[in-house]
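User: Hey, quick favor. My workstation is busy. Could you predict this chain's structure for me?
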Amino acid sequence: MNEQEASVFEVQRLLEVEELDTDFYRGAARPEEGGRIYGGQVIAQALASAVASVEPGRAAHSLHAYFLRAGDITRPVIYRVIRDFDGGSFANRRVVALQDGRPILNLAASFQRPEEGLAYRGPMPQPPGPEAAKPLADFLTAAMGTLPWPFRDLALALDMRVGQIDAKGADPSVGMPGLPSQCAWFRLPAGLDEVQARTALALVSDYGLINTALLPHEKGWSSPDIQSASLDHAIWFHETPPLGEWLLYTMDSPWSGHGRGLARGTIFTQDGGMIASMTQEGLIRHRP
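Assistant: No problem, here it is.
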């Protein structure tokens, strides 16, 4: 097994939860690592727990999550699912992620049967393609020296690449004109199924999003004078993402203030199909 194959295996592990009892699941610990859990991991595993309680044929179309406490990566996370609603077309689930008996995340997810309807999609920005983008692993290693887990596995398994970054919002090919914007390219591993594809999208959606709100301040989440953390996160799934194909993740930020920042993201296929939209508010305290 080469390095990339090992990283794909580790990312697939992040998408799985163990059933303990009816509506109780567990996400595995990483005792060999240290620090707090990556927020995208808790969102993805909470979504996987909710999916396990929904009858087949309904796909997640949205989720809304609040981060309450920092999780400990060296300890497992317990996910409790609450079955709020099962209707003819939609189903709704709440999930509480627990460590030490205390909630670290609350998530609500909605599921829908396949349905046709009126369709429209906005235009896709046109940054340079993935061939011109720098591998994320190289970018982060240059900035941080060492690449912490799970970013090294995400970077390798998803072939993540850093696209255009525009702190002043002057380049409309990156994002909405006038707003600080950035973009990244990635590919989901070919071995995932349809459910895991959406869960993997939830996993990657937390990467870099709130960092966009720091661009106009010439700061980043790793800046020593910045205290940052995700506060809440929402995703709307428009389509099941294709596997093994390049996807573009565009991000912009319309506002920051009061120690918080707001960022928005959209994920496109390379030919302009809109796969998902997300928003996130995060803590961005400046501590000189």
